[in-house]
Structures are given as C-alpha cells and as structure tokens.
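Blinded run. Sample ID left blank on purpose so nobody reads anything into the name before looking at the predicted structure. Input follows.
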Amino acid sequence: MPTPLPSPLLGVLGGMGPLATADFLAKLVAETPASCDQDHIPYIAYGVPQIPDRPPAIIGNGESPLPYMLRGIATLKQAGAQAVAIACNTAHYWHDDLLREGRLPILHIADAVCDLLAERGIGSGKIGLIGTEGTIKAGFFQQRFAARGLDYLISNRADQDDLVMPAIACVKANDLQRAHHLAIQAVENLLDAGACAVVLACTETPVAVEFAPHPAAMHCIDATRALAQACVAWHRTATQAR
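Blinded prediction complete.
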C-alpha cells in the first residue's frame, strides 16, 4: 500500500524565472521554524521555464501565459496540493482567473507584502515599487497599498528602462554582479525621491539586491520573502484545522 502524501501540501507554481523560484524555495525553508527535516513544510514545485513571458502579454503584444499556468495548477492539484504559491509577481495579474479555473486557493504576493509592511510598522508614507512593466501596469500592488492608506512611488521612465529591466534581465542571464549594481541604484533613486521603503516586486530583484551587502537593502521589502512567510502562516493554520 503506497505511503499517503503529507498534508497539508503546498504547491509552488514556478519557473518564472528559474533562479527566482529557487530563491523562493530557499526562503520558504529559511522562514519555517523547524528543528529537523520533518518540521518543514511539505511542498511540490512545478518549474517550467517555457511558460511565455508575462509582461508582454499584459502590455498587449505577447502570448498569454494563462493556459500554461493553468496546466501547472492542474498538475499541482493532481499531485495533491491544497494551496498554491506563485513564485512570480507579474503572474499575479492572472490571479483571479487562476483561482476561478484552477479551483485551488492561491496566496497573493501583494497581500503578503502588505502584511509584512504592517508587521514592520509601516502604515503611512510613500512606498517605492520596483517591478516589471507588467506588474506596474497591472496595478494590484497599488490597489492594495491604497486600501491600506499607503501612497506609492515607481521608478521614472529612464530608471525603468536603464536600471530595473536590465537588472531583471541580468539575473535571468546569471550576471548577478551587474544585476546588483543596477538594482541598488534603482532602490537608491526611489529612496532619494521620498520613499520610506522599497518593495522589490519582481522575484528577480531580491536576488540582485542580496547578491552583496549594501546599506540600501535595509530599506527594502522582499516580496519573495513575504510570500514565503504567508505560506508558513497558511500551513500552520491548515495544520491546526485538520
């Protein structure tokens, strides 16, 4: 008789991109209070990097990744996952579609970020937001900030084109040293513009910022880590409800 799967089981929809997914999984382990292997959260990850790029689809000139992501959700559900974390900020543009058609609870990364901001006592002021064109245009971070009385700042056009997007591309190409230099400059520019904290709202950007120590990093909110913390909270609640 086969051994039953552990419950509750977390599903991770990843591959967007591969290094960012690995970063999320490492932070899931780091954020889990555990004294041995068996104390950690059981998860199953779907990592398919061939999912079409998300920003072009949102901007309007790229193939929709929704069918590919739904295939991933279906695979995770069939494997026994009871909730899903998506290791990509921009992919949350399709959160409602994935929730409705995939029929699994999906932890929202922007909600996790807002919870972390509150935990750190940040309830007012302007929040810097660094993300892809798709994430910025989708507006789900801005909507959730507004609901909690927070204002926001985004990178200007030059910084988005010359710093943010090249930093993301450098992480995907595994050029982390250059990615770090570009991402830190983007963070510093938002801080200089009046941001009291900067949300790293692309899963590649924490990888870039954390590549080397820098004072600006202390002002950053890592959306990837916030999502990992939300997964730990979900697992604790789901376990208690069993």
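Unblinding after everyone has recorded impressions. The CA atoms of residues 18 and 167 lie 15 Å apart.
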